[in-house]
Amino acid sequence: MVSEDQLIERVRRLVVSPAARRLRGTRLKPNGLQTGIGDDAAVLRPGAGSEWVVTTDAFLENVHFLRKTHPPKAVGYKSLARATSDIAAMGARARYFFMTVGLPDACAGVWLDNFLGGMASAARRFGLILAGGDTTKYPLVVASFTVVGEVNRGRAILRSGARPGDLLCVSGRLGEAELGFRLLQRKPHEHKRWTRLLKKHFYPEPQLVVGEWLAAHRFATSMIDTSDGLSTDLDHICKASGAGAIVWGPKIPVVRIPPELRRLGLDPLDLALHGGEDYELLFTVPKKFSSRLPRKINGVSVTVIGEITREKKIILVGPDGSGAPLQPMGWDPFRKKR
Question: How many whole angstroms separate alpha carbon 304 and alpha carbon 251?
Answer without folding.
Answer: 7
